[in-house]
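Weekly puzzle thread! Below is a chain. First person to post its structure in token form gets bragging rights.
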Amino acid sequence: MVTRNVVLTDTQDELVQALVATGRYQNVSEAMRAGLRLLEQEEAQLAGIRAGLLDGLRQAERGDLAEGSGTDAVRRAFARARVTIMSRSFRLTRRAEGSLVEIARWTIETFGPLQAELYESELLERCNALAKGRAHSRSCSILVDGVEDLRYLRAGEHFLVFLDRPEEVIIVDILHSRSDLPRHIAALTALKG
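Winning reply:
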């Protein structure tokens, strides 16, 4: 490894020290390397945006345009997207299934079989709405580095944490609302902000 001297503002130093104090990073160097990884990702994203724009500009120069009017192209694009989204399904990881077994067991023991059936219906409705793109979810990718499509959605007293993939939704875990997932995400966002 190469050693570098870096000058930080007081605010930046406070942030790095706070990150180390939380135990998320073992030392200042580890926190700085994590910041550089984020910068590297941002630069790669910007390079991808530039490459796409240059490709679009070359197509415009060549007259390589979508067939029909702009209105036709927009309608065609949305029709294709609807077919893709509307045919998506959802699946559960074994961990999510295990969490769901515990939730079902607790619901039956605490509230009885009728309430368990109602909650089952509610969860199924939320999962199907999620897969069909009819449910609003939020990003929680900040919880796991490098997983940009990790999202969550409230379903009754639980949060469905899932991967939002073009071909399907994969529910990776189901957390109780007491886990206070939104607060943890907000705190991590503030630290990285």
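Puzzle host: Confirmed. Bonus trivia for everyone else. The chain has a mean pLDDT of 87.
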